[in-house]
Amino acid sequence: MNYSQQRNCILNIVCSNPIHPTAEQVYEQARNIFPRISLGTVYRDLNQLSQMGALKKICSSYGSVRFDGRTDPHFHMECTCCRRVFDVEKSELFSPEKSIMDSCGFLVRRYEISIQGICRDCREKNRDLPIDKTEKR
């Protein structure tokens, strides 16, 4: 992939943005630097960057695609109220690769875990929410 100032800008926006932005959010920020950039360019560059492993593409349960600048092994939690996506360190959960290999002989190359719940900010704003409430809006 050839170097492009716009593609580099898009990569920097995602990498410096812990909210796991959507293409539209990246587009809005990129327009501050490149006012004539198109949404199509942002989508194309995000897809190319994720295909080459510079970014991770995260498919949310709400149908939106988000992008993550962290490419190291980790998981994500999605708030069912505000729909933000948060990182969870792999060490906070488990590492099933060895146990799966030992029990099934299956060599794990990649896996994804979907964790949904209500983030601290949403719980504090809506103190009447029970801890186990998981309905989607």
Task: List the keywords.
137 residues, alpha+beta, Arc Repressor Mutant, subunit A, Dna Ligase, domain 1, 2 domains, three-stranded mixed β-sheet, two-stranded antiparallel ribbon, flat, disordered C terminus
Structural overview:
- This protein has 137 residues and is α+β, with helices and mostly antiparallel strands.
- It folds into 2 domains: 1-69, Arc Repressor Mutant, subunit A; 72-137, Dna Ligase, domain 1 (2-Layer Sandwich).
- The chain contains 6 helices and 5 strands, in the order αααββββααβα.
- The protein has helices spanning 5-15, 23-33, 39-51, 90-93, 97-104, 120-125; strands at 56-59, 65-68, 74-79, 85-89, 114-117.
- The strands form 2 sheets. Strands 4-3-5 form a 3-stranded mixed sheet. It has a two-stranded antiparallel sheet with strand order 1-2.
- α1 packs across α2, α1 (5-15) packs across α3 (39-51) and α2 packs across α3.
- The longest helix has 13 residues, at 39-51.
- 15% of the residues are buried.
- Mean pLDDT is 86; it is low at 133-137.
Write the layout of secondary structure elements.
Elements: H1 5-15, H2 23-33, H3 39-51, E1 56-59, E2 65-68, E3 74-79, E4 85-89, H4 90-93, H5 97-104, E5 114-117, H6 120-125
Parallel strand pairs: 3-5
Antiparallel strand pairs: 1-2, 3-4
Helix pairs in contact: 1-2, 1-3, 2-3
